[in-house]
Amino acid sequence: MSAGRARPSWRWAMYACLALAAGLFLMPVYMMLLTALKEPAAIGLDTAWQLPRTWNWASFARAWTSFLPKLQNSLVLTVAASGASAMLGSLNGYVFAKWPFPGSRIVFAFILFGMFIPYQAILIPLFGFVKSIGLYGSIWGLVLVHTVYGLPITTLIFRNYYVDIPDSLIESSALEGAGFFTIYWKVVFPLSLPGFVVVIIWQFTQIWNEFLFAVTLSNPQSQPITVALAQLAGGEAVKWNLPMAGALLAALPTLLIYVVFGRYFVRGLLAGSVKG
Amino acid sequence: MRWRRHTNQIIGFLVLLPSMALVGVFVYSFIGRTLYASLTDWGQDPAQALALNPITRFIGLDNYRQLFTGVIDARFRQDLVSTVFFTAFFLAGCLLVGLLLAILIDHKPRGEGFFRGVFLFPFALSFVVTGTIWRWLLQPGGGVNQLPTMVGLPAGSFAWLTSKQQVWRFDWNALPAMLAWAAALSLAALALSALRSRRRGRAAAAAAGAVLAAGWALLAGPAAAPLPFPELHGFNLAFVGIVVAAVWQMAGYTMALYLAGLSGVPEEIREAAVVEGASEWQLYTRVILPLLAPITLSAMIVLGHISLKIFDLVFAMAGPDNAYTDVPALLMYITTFRGNQFAKGAAIGVILLLLVAVIVVPYLRSQLKEGVHE
Fold first, then answer.
1. What is the C-alpha separation between A45 and A150, in angstroms, rounded?
2. Do A187 and A123 contact (CB within 8 A), yes or no?
3. Which one of A96, A136, B175, B311 has the minimum C-beta count within 10 Å?
4. What letter does residue B170 receive in the DSSP assignment?
5. Cβ distance B308 to A118 under 8 Å?
6. For B301, nearest residue in chain A (alpha carbons)
7. In degrees, to the nearest 5, what angle opens at C-alpha B63 toward C-alphas B60 and B65?
8. Pick from B155, B369, B102, B187: nearest CA to A105
9. Are A31 and B367 within 8 A, CB to CB?
10. Percent of chain A with pLDDT strictly greater than 70
11. Max Cα distance, chain A (Å)
12. A125 touches chain B (CB under 8 A)
């Protein structure tokens, strides 16, 4: 490593930079916790950085009770849509990687493009469509929408994952008489666990954090957490302890996933920059 | 065996069909319907807003003409300008900070995993959470503005999200000429590089194009004013805070991309450079950065399309009704779902799609072509 030979004076400069950057990156989290733990009356702009005199945990309890239904909405939506889009993506990826047919690359490209479109370009017909099938304001409308628009990325990740499964493995089971689905079920699927972890973590994070579809297609009963949080924080004359406690609650699930499954999270992130 | 392969390909095609149908309907047919809606008067007549099946009239490109040259749509033009500035600063910030962090981590400090984790965690948050926290941090009387007082300096007084100050202003009427000059300059650059690689024909064509564009800018540009009066647009300083929050969230992502690239740089190359007496600085600027160019491109495309679509961060940070921090993605939402101006909203959506497609389609093509040679 070139760095191993670096002079000691450079090393401490490097650590100074790292510490400074880490401080800047953590500062908003510090402020979030600090503000969430203050008494509403103790929150003032000019005392924003001071530690609370009395630690007030009640904001978390209040945010928890008022956000619980929204968190449940988000959970149902996220689990259902991540699962469905992962399952479909796995089958699609298997076809693109192992049974490409004439023109399949073009189909692949057309599916992939769906990942990049600004959803404003489909929002009006989508709104009309979801309304016309009676799913406006229902969590299942959002499940459908997130499953469909999740297909490009899940297909991409699985396709790139399955390309690395040796063709000889597929061929030998085909020689033994295994058909399309037997090969998938007996050979490909058992090797897919890491792929599923990457895809489900990615989809979970994306869907949990999504806002545009959520704000357009939900009503107060089916609101996911992001919409509820934006409304709470956007209100006039807010006391900031509640939005901060709510922000922490909204962030916790994806943060936990990030902490526990960091490596897989990074793999999903890298897959998002394509490489077909 | 061959027939079996064919059977499986046919089954594969059938398995893909539902997904193809879903993407076909939800992406392509919906884009088509948005495009059509943008060519109608849907929303101009109050009766249409209430009707289940509104009767709309085809009016051609009228909505687009209004957006770019109509008196009442000045807000859209400012939003377009704002997005361009926002994208430029957001990209520059993420690439710079991301690369610096990646180089620091690449030196394998103690606690490497901790630092990596700290720099990347904002990426796991939603833009709404980020926006909520930064909205509090950027309150005019508190948060960041209070920081200088900790070292005895007077508090800052910048109105982060509500500043009305605008810099780098230009007249919208000068835009056609400016675009023509930009085209002329890039064609000239293309001609030079073609000349250097001795492709005469291409150089001549590019040079001719450059001259043509420059000539048009000089002669016809001033006459091509889209508006009958001057209309100034520029960079709204209220965006600075949003850029900071966005970079905070996405710099770690850029770092992760660069780290993946750095781990792919063979150790021999680094050693060879050091043996030949390259300094640390030269090692990075002359050897490693050029090797990372494809990563920089990927990062620019991904960040660029995120930036053009940015909606939730602005919504959460400054609210949907703050004109100084408006972007087209937000304006589309308000125009459509608050103002019931469906056709105009659709037109904004189409313009956003075109902006994104211009950068994404060539990228996807090149990525998928590379894939063939795997």
1. 41
2. no
3. A136
4. E
5. yes
6. A273
7. 90
8. B369
9. no
10. 95
11. 75
12. yes
